[in-house]
Amino acid sequence: MRPTGVAWKRIPLATVAIVAVLAAACSKTSNSPGASSSPASSSSASVSLTGAGSTFVQPAMLQWISKYKTVDAGVSINYQGIGSGGGITQLTAQTIDFADSDAFMKPAEISAAEAKRKCTVVHVPMVFGAVTVAYNVKGLSNLTLDGPTLANIYLGKITTYNDPAIKALNPGTNLPSTPIRVVHRSDASGTSNIFTTYLSSVSPLWSSQVGASKSPKWPTGGEGQGNDGVAAQIQGNDGGLGYVELSYALDSKLSTAKLKNKDGNAITASIASTQAAVQSLQIPADLRFNVTGVGGQGYPIVGATWVIAYECGYPAAKATALKSFLTWIVNNGDAVALQLHYAPLFPTLKTKTLANIALINSKA
Question: Which of 34, 59, 66, 74 is at a distance of 20 to 30 A from 339, taking alpha carbons?
Answer without folding.
Answer: 74
